Amino acid sequence: MKRVVYQDLLKWKNSENRKPLILKGVRQSGKTWLLKEFGKNNYEDVAYFNFEGNENLKQRFEQDLDIDRIIEELSILHHKAISPEKTLIIFDEVQFCNRALTSLKYFYENAPEYHIACAGSLLGILLSKPLSFPVGKVDFLELRPMNFYEFLLANDEKMLVDYLKKNIDKVPITFEEKLQNYLKNYYIVGGMPEAVEKWMETKDIEHVEKVQDMILNSYELDFAKHAPLSDTPKLSLIWNYIPRELSRENSKFIYGHVKEGARAKDLEDALQWLISAGMCYQINRIEKPNIPLSSYMDMQSFKIYMCDVGLLRRKAKVDASIILEDDKEIYKEFKGALAENFVLLELISNNQGIPYYWTSGNEAEVDFVWQFKGKAIPVEVKSGKNLSSRSLTLYRKKYEPRMAIKTSLQNVDRQEDVLNIPLYLLWNLRKFLIYGEN
């Protein structure tokens, strides 16, 4: 499967200022597979080492951190000499060995000719002992679940994608229906690579849901594995509450809704744990859309979204057939939640940053405000073809942005300063925005 971050790995390999790399990301996002595939395609050899539960491997780093000795002993474990420039060394689950993390500093300073790429969960790296982390001595890349663009490529639609990249006018009717069907499939399957792979192999939703259940269960096992024992019940409460919160008309996160009588001081540490693990995103309200948006953030008002729409759909127990048949009466409220969560993930994929949302008292709410090239761009989400938006109209009247985005199932449409981009073309958002500036 093609991953966009693969190109960043090539840049890292060829960089004159290359440092040891940490590929971080939420669990099950495909970090190990990607590094092995990258190594197989771009190096003469791959030396793979997994630190989880491997005490013999950890002991190689418990003595001194002499790089020559470490390389010699790793070569023995690999049953083959590890060569500078020619071998990709992969440290998997590196967060389980703090001394291995520390060694990256000495690889960078004393042996930069060795190419080292590490895979680790966001949370595990965050929880590594402070003195072990090689600050300033490593490069970072983040791997998220597959976005819709990558999902299309996984479905052998490269020719369609290439066509859409070049043509940003209205989508031909024959392609429009096809893309809408792919979007429904993406809402069901999501972007977890194993779920996507199972879908491609079987086209059987039951098989996909078994994979999704396995991933969700593994996440909950991580609560007990990594979190303080006293926080485990709180993590489960918040994790199970997220789908219910998103389906509410006003989806602002309220601690008292998670558990009656709960306040921020009771649950905020557990919520931050989930965010740090990459399992969910916190989107804060802004008071006004001035640049930089972060300066106008309301720390007390925020929404929570999940890291993957497929996992959200499965966790909410929304039957796949309801989405495929587009039964609006049964899931009309949750349809909006799926669309919002989808748009958030596409925005993050486009910009590598977290957007905000805007409200004006109880009068109006714009789903996202996104910072792009020094401009605040409002983004209004519609799950169907309805383009009317009282909130965006009020926002535009108040702030007069040079450009506003509506995203829905409606085809490409431009009216004055408002650009409607179909949900299934948000992966090409940057090109639309650059075109709109000209």
* Rg (C-alpha, Å): 23 Å
For the sheet with most strands, the description reads:
8 strands, mixed
Percent strand equals 15-25%
Task: Return the average pLDDT rounded to an integer.
Answer: 90
The oligomeric state of the chains shown is single chain
The total of beta strands comes to 13
Low-confidence stretches: none
Number of domains: 2
What are the SSEs and their pairings?
Blueprint: H1 6-14, E1 21-25, H2 31-42, E2 45-50, H3 55-59, H4 67-78, E3 87-92, H5 98-110, E4 115-121, H6 122-126, E5 139-142, H7 148-154, H8 158-166, H9 173-189, H10 193-202, H11 205-226, H12 232-247, H13 255-258, H14 264-276, E6 280-286, E7 297-306, H15 309-315, H16 320-324, H17 328-351, E8 356-360, E9 364-372, E10 375-381, H18 390-399, E11 404-408, E12 413-415, E13 418-422, H19 429-437
Parallel strand pairs: 1-4, 1-5, 2-3, 3-4, 6-8, 10-11, 11-13
Antiparallel strand pairs: 6-7, 8-9, 9-10, 12-13
